[in-house]
Amino acid sequence: MIIDEGEYLRLVDQMRISVPQEIKNARQIEAEREARLGAAQEQVEAMIQAAGEKADTLTAEHAVRLKAQAQAEEIIASAIEEASAIRSDADAYALEVLQRIATQLEGFGRTVQNGIRHLQVGGRVEAGPDGLRPPEPVVVPSEASG
Q1: What is the pLDDT along the chain (146 residues), one digit of tens a residue?
Q2: Cα angle: 40, vertex 46, 51; to 5 degrees
Q3: Which of 9, 12, 130, 134 pairs with 111 at a CA distance of 20 to 30 A?
Q4: Degrees to nearest 5, angle at CA 17 with 10 and 89
């Protein structure tokens, strides 16, 4: 089996274009994750401050104060739980995207290694170990499989 040099060069050019874009996408995802975490932290702090201010205004009577303090603690616990859920979701999303990029990069690496091996044998396809079968063709992962 002969590998089409034009197709091989097209695949290499495609990898040169897509790999930097995937890295840019990963950086953008990381920036979005950080922005979400920052927004969640600000929301938690605002909720804590709001709860504290509400508790301060309700200190006139002891029973009211105790009730306000309990509510503030519930709000804080809820805010912390929500922030944790947001962090977890953002981390899961970033992990999924990074794993997909890693899979694509592994595929590109296999393609490059196949091309290197092909060029090292003088650009000719040589028979396999049994003298009959050609080596495996260059495999490129498709965007749809990621």
Answers
A1: 677 888 878 877 777 777 777 778 888 888 898 888 899 889 989 988 988 887 777 666 677 678 888 999 999 999 899 889 988 998 999 999 999 999 999 999 999 999 999 999 886 555 445 544 455 555 555 554 44
A2: 125
A3: 130
A4: 130
Among the listed residues 15, 26, 11, 39, the one whose alpha carbon sits nearest the alpha carbon of residue 105: 15
For the chain, which residues make up each domain, given as ranges?
Answer: 5-141
Q: Which tokens hold the place of 67?
A: 């009730």
> Which tokens hold the place of 103?
């899979």
Three-state secondary-structure class, residue 140 = coil
Alpha carbons 32 and 71: distance in angstroms, whole number: 32
Distance CA(36)–CA(83), nearest Å, equals 9
pTM, to two decimals = 0.37
Tokens linked to 38: 């920052």
Q: What is the Cα 127 distance to its own chain's centre?
A: 41
